[in-house]
Every structure is written in C-alpha cells, then in structure tokens.
C-alpha cells in the first residue's frame, strides 16, 4: 500500500461521516474518486472486511466502489460475495448510486461477466432486475443497466424476472441521471422485442421494435435496420399486415430501410395478399437472407399464422364448412394429412379463443360450425376494462398537457417565437400553429379528462 | 417531312431528283407485288411521309396487320384475340352503315379478323368502301385485298360470291392514288413553308390543318397528330381551339392514345364555347371522353359521360367515331356495371336524352328494365345472347368480360339484399349457374365486403349477417383507447429523447459509412450528458398540441 494512501479506518470514517446525500456529493465523491483503485481492490487479510463495516443502504455510494472490485476480482461466485451483492441491490439508495453511474455500470457488467463465465447467467439476472428498480428515479425510467439485463436474459433464455420491467413502458429518459445514450435505448427495445417474440407476445414485440425503428435519428443505425426487419415479420404474425410506421420516423432511417430490407418488403407484400403459393415462393427466395439475419424462425411462424388467419377469414364468410373444404380453401389441400392438421389448428384456435366454433363428426370428415363472439359486452368485465382505459388515457393526456404547458412557458420557446418578428411574417407554421393553439385551448377549457370521457361515452350511445 | 426538324437544305427545297428517288422505291414495291401477292417482302420505306411509310405487310393475319390505327397504337393491355364463330344478332350492312370515315374500315377489318363467318363479307365491304371514297391510304387497300385473297384461298364462308375485280389489286388505281398522295403531300408542305416564310398566323394554322387532314386521309396518324398539334401555337380564337381539340381527339382515338383524348376533352370543355354547334360539340366531347374512360376501364366515369351526351348524336352525327347505337350499348353496359338501383333509375331510366339512344337498341333497354325490376334470368339471357356481338366491337371487346362480371356481381348483391336467408339452390337457378360456382362468387363478394352474409355450406343457405352494433362499438372504442395511449406514450418518449439529445448520429471520426460503422450488439458505452435541445422546443410543442387536438378530432369523426 502506497504511503500516500489513507488507511482503511480513515476511509471508513470519512464514509461514515457523510450521512446525507449533499455530503456525499460534495465531499465524499471527490474524495473517493481521487483514491487509487487499489484501495478498493485490496482485500486485507486479518482486518475487518470494509464492506462489513458499511451499511449498503446508508453508504451505497462507497459500498458500490468496493463491490465493483470485489466482483471484478471474483472468479465464480462464493456465497459471501453473493450475499453482499444481494444485500446491496435490495437495499441500496438509488440516488447515491446514480452519482456513480459508471461504477454501477461496471458493477453490472462485472456481475454478468462472472455469471456467464461460470455458465450460470441466471445468477446475475435477478440481482440486476432488482438493482434496476432501485436505480430508477421513476418506474418508467430507462437506465444503462436495461439493455445489459435484456441481453443477458435473452442469452440465458430466462425471461421471468425481466418481464415486469419490460411490461413497464419506458416513459422517462434522462441521460443526466443515468448516463444512457441512444444505443442503450435502441438496444433495450431491440432485445425487449426479441424477448417478447420469444414469448410469442407479438403485440408487445411489434411495439418494441417500432419504438426502436422510429427513434429520432440523423443517420440510420444498424440496430434500427435489424429492428425493422423483425418489426415486419412480427407485425405480419400479429396483424397479418405490416402496420404503418409513425410518420415522424426519421427520413434517413426510412431511406436505408428501403434499400436494406427489400426481401422483407417483398415477403410482406406477398403475405398481405394471402395467397399461399406466392408467399411460399417469396419465402424460398428470401430464405438465405432470412437465415443470414436469423429471422427464418419468425418467417416460418408467419406461415403457420397464415393458416390461422385464413381460417379466421372463413368465419366471416361461412356458418358451416366441412374440414375438407377448409383444407382446400386455405391451400393445404395438396398436403398428405392436411385435413388432420387443419382440425388440429382449429381445435387450438378454439381453445385460445381466436375463433368461436364447434366441430361435429356426425358427417364423414367432420363439419365445423362457426359461431359469433359470445361476448355481448354487457358485463362488468367490459365496464372495468373501459374504466381502466379511460383512466389511463386521462393520465397520459394530463401528462401531455403538463408538458405542453411547461414547454410553452419556457423562455427559450418564447425567444424562438419572438425571433420571427412580431408580425410572424415568414413564419411557415403560422396558420397551423394557430389552429393548434385553438385545439389545445379547447382541451384546457373543457378540462382534458372530461372531454375524453365525453368522447368515450359518446361512442357508446 | 417537317422542315423545322431537318436542317438539311435538300429537304427544304424538294428538287425533282428527290421526287424521282421516291418514285423509284414505289416502283420497286409494285414490281414485287406483281410477282407474288402473298409475300411480305416489301420493305417499309421509312422516312418518306407518304402513305408508303405505313405499309407493313406482316403475314400473321392477326389483329395487328392493319398498319394504320392499330399498328401505331400504344395499347397498354395485351388484348387476347377472341375468335367469334358467329354473331347472334349482327346485321353487318345495317351495323356498318351507321359509321363513316376511318372507323368504318377499322371496324370492318376488326370484324374480319375475329369472325371467320363474316370475314369475307366484311373485307368486301371494306374494300368497296375504300374504293368508293377514293382513299389515299393505299397500303391499307393492298393489305385488305391480300387478306381477302387469303380468305378466299382458305375457303372462308361466302368465298364463292366474291367478284374477281375485288380480288385483284387494281394496280393502276393504286399507283395513281399513291402518286396523288405524294403530290398532295409535297404541295401542302410547300404551301405551309411559304406561309411560314410570310409568317401569317392564320394561314400557317390552316396549312397545318390541311396537311394534318391529308396525313389523316393517308392513314399516317402520327404525322396527322403532329400537324394538328402544331396548330396550337397559332390558335387565336376559342373556335380555333375547339377545332384543334376535335382534330387531335379524332387522331388520338384512332391511335388508341386515350389519356391524350381526355386531356384535350378537358381543354376543349374549359374553352369558352362559340355559338354555332355548341350542343353538338359538347355531345361529341362527351362521347370522346366516354370512349377514353371506357378504354381506361373507368366504367362509372364512362357511364356518366355517355349518359350526359344528350340527344345531339341520335342521327350518327359523330359517325366517324361512334354511332348512336354504340352510345346506347356502351352507356347502358357501363351504367349497369357501375350504378346502384337508385342511380340507375335517376340517371338512366329517367334520362330523356338517353332514352332516344335506347330506342335504337331495344334489348339494352330491356336489359336495364329487367335489371331494375330484378328479373335477372332475363338480364343474363340478354347479356348472353349479345355477348358475341359485343366481342366484335372495336372499343368494347376487351371490356366485355369485366363489364359482365361487374353486372353479375351487382345482380348478386341486389338479389340477396332483401332476404334474411337465401336458398342457394334456388338462387343458382335464377342465375343459371351451379351451387358450387355460386358459392364461390358469393364468397368473393362477402370477402370484398359487398354482401353482409355468411354461408351455411352444409345446408346451402345464405344467412344475412346480424352485426351487433353495440359490441362493435365497444370493440372499436377499446381499440381506439389503446391506440391513443400507445401513441401518446410514444410521443412523450420521443419528445424526451429529442430534448435530451438521444438522437442517432454517426459516430465522430467514422463519417464514412454510417451504417457499417455501427455494430448493433457491441460497442463501448459512451455516457454522454444530455445536449441542450432548446432549439427543438418549438417543434415538440407543435407535436404535443397537434396531437392533443387532432387525435380527438380524427377519431371523433370517424
């Protein structure tokens, strides 16, 4: 130990002296940052473990410094370290940890590294999931740990612990607090989408890929391109067509997509036409590209979804139909045990509630009767659902209004407005801006929540 | 040859040598014709503006050997040549008497190409017509004579009655006509040049029109079109503009350039009308635009055009393009294919002007009445009976299938609309078809959303669909709520990202390839503080406000 380095006791007492967040920021942070790394790395034998002397909740900032090196030094988990990690992630103070977000990131990376080295990635997942929750200033905040956790989960194929985090939409990005950059955002949504696709929750997967693709961009990122490819396939799977991307998608991204994703666009066009043969040829043609992009699995699932979609279309046109007819109508007629496969598909669809039907084997080959949706929307479930949605919509509208107000009262906004001159000459947005204000004022006058509820109730009348 | 286009001084001044040169070529041609009527060895002498430039004796005997209108037309569609055994009702003489000018020969040739049983008669009529009008379109005459020879050789019906003077090409006459055409061309070109030198606007216009008329008579439609179009710069009154439009429309219809027809119809209609022939011009323009819309498969527009012609063309006043009978047929079929019952009643049955035309074609009137009175057996019967005739129509033939399908669909929709359940076997009988075929038709209609019903394929019954409006609204509003939430959230997030500078940028120092330089899966974290995105405030503000106001408005009025 270099003579200039203070002793452990000194450090510990310094740390313990800084009790509130202000002290940590002002005195402790510069002090610890100036210390040599070896101080934290050394594991003194015979002395008391400094980590034991510290309280992970009260001294999270310092605790983290020690823990990072402990994790980095560790090969394989020992029980003691695991306990300390666990104690730290469950009780640490998010505000203090955010002050040392570099350290927090290295801590997470070290943890994952140890876990993957020992081929037990699952060990890192749970602590990280909890760590994220401690670290977030608000429940929807994106932290730098998010993409790492998502990637680890995906590699470990263990997604149980990340699902609550994924289900909570990202609504808050503050690079000042969490030191994230755009890549974190893109990667998190890309991995998140893949996790949802893995769970066959394609609706959410589409959402996640869409967020990645439509992220603001000056140039297209390769992540966005890959996300768009998966977006096309998951969208086909879920909706049978490619949902239009939001119109604010960056033009650079749009251009690159057009060039890079030709095979996907062709496949989608063929798929939307629902003709079995054309899709099959298109799939064969695009197979090398899909395999290269590791999307062939999704594409194959699209083919199966096509049968389900075709059967659903039949429910709109037929009341009863023999299985034999269904088989030929959805284009499986030429396959050897098509009818049996179709019956299987229908049974599974009935079970999952995708169609409402009964199969009768009174006639040879079996006859399927399609029924109407028994949900008459006259029960409390519907009522609750609608209420929940109204509340959600009200909340988000209130948030939007607040943001709108906040922006419109900022000096920068006024400067911007003023710089165009008092008569607004040459201000191209003039007309539209005016009408926007009108719309906005209407909302404020009526009270946003009220108007929304009115709006909902009007639809029911 | 256009003097403006060619800077060659020899062409500016037609020397005797120039003429004799051309004469040599034509002499050669005749020599080869003498030796064998059926060879196609004749080289097209390109570059000469005389009728010779259009000689195109292909030996396929198909639809395209006309050399004139069809040879030059730019058809987008590939039209399958349908051979028609025999028309059911067509009286060739009466039919063709309603036409005059080029379309008469065009139609006859068209019929000859498609209908073996009428081939000889049609060719005979066409040749006689060409001889009687002293046509300058010699290549066409030769071509038709060759066709007639071929037909007689293969023993087509009616061959016995062909007189020998129609079979042999009157060479002397052809030569003299060709020479006449040539001389006329040179004369008119010379005159025009003279007018141009003197730059008298009106004379130049007239010269161009005369030259255009001459080219038109010679069957050189492209040159005619060009000459007509050139008068554009010299039009001084609205009458001139109308004249220009009518001429260009005439040439364009024969060329098959229908988008062009529409342009000039619009141009003519927007021109302040001159007093004389006002109604007639209007009617002609409507007819031309109807033809163009028909050709472009815009049947509703075509129907409206034909129906609004009025009574002006009852006496075949526009016989060089369309006969009064045609107006009834085209208009009637297009109307049936595109209008619903009320429109049919209002626009067709109660249309006094159009009734005049319907009187000429009583079966179309019966068809429309039958359709309106839901007598579909009668309708389908009439349609079936007259189908062959329409397949022999120059303009209608390629649309007959589409029109018939549309009419049939309309009939099916009308048939099912009043019933809660329909027995498919009975329905199949009314449409004289089989149950499986009917089922297929119905399925396509149901999928297309034109019939709200479902098929019980076990008992062969069509059930009208009972949609629960209340449930539908619940479902829709749920979806709408989700949409709103999702879009709003995405917007909030996006605003935060722009404000905090979380924007994809090409990494500094690696400007070369923005896509290649970034690997999606690795790459160091560059923690970077948020950029001050104040300049984006205005944009974001606009985003929020417009979202708040437009979302509710858009959805509200859906």
Automatic annotation (TrEMBL), chain A:
Record GO biological process: ubiquitin-dependent protein catabolic process
First-listed, main subcellular location of the protein, grouped into a coarse class: cytoplasm
Entry keyword set: Cytoplasm, Nucleus, Signalosome
Superkingdom to which the source organism belongs: Eukaryota
Entry GO terms, CC: COP9 signalosome; cytoplasm
Pfam families, A to Z: COP9_hel_rpt, PCI
InterPro entries recorded: COP9_N, CSN3, PCI_dom
Stretches assigned to the PCI domain: 201-373
Localization: Cytoplasm; Nucleus
Family in the record: Belongs to the CSN3 family.
Protein name: COP9 signalosome complex subunit 3
TrEMBL record, chain B:
Keywords carried by this UniProt record: Cytoplasm, Nucleus, Signalosome
Record-linked InterPro entries: CSN1_C, PCI_dom, Rpn7/CSN1, Rpn7_N, WH_DNA-bd_sf
Keyword Lyase: no
GO cellular component terms attached to this protein's record: COP9 signalosome; cytoplasm
Positions of the UniProt region annotated as Disordered: 1-74, 502-539
Domain PCI: 295-469
SUPFAM superfamilies for the chain: Winged helix' DNA-binding domain
Main location group: cytoplasm
Biased composition regions of type Polar residues, renumbered to the chain: 8-29, 38-57
Cell compartments where the protein resides: Cytoplasm; Nucleus
Ranges of compositional bias, category Basic and acidic residues: 523-535
Recorded superkingdom: Eukaryota
Pfam family, one: RPN7
Gene3D superfamilies in the cross-refs: 1.25.40.570
Record has Ribosomal protein as a keyword: no
SMART domains: PINT
Transmembrane segments: none
Family classification: Belongs to the CSN1 family.
Protein name as annotated: Cop9 signalosome complex subunit
Protein source organism: Linnemannia gamsii
Lineage start: Eukaryota, Fungi, Fungi incertae sedis, Mucoromycota, Mortierellomycotina
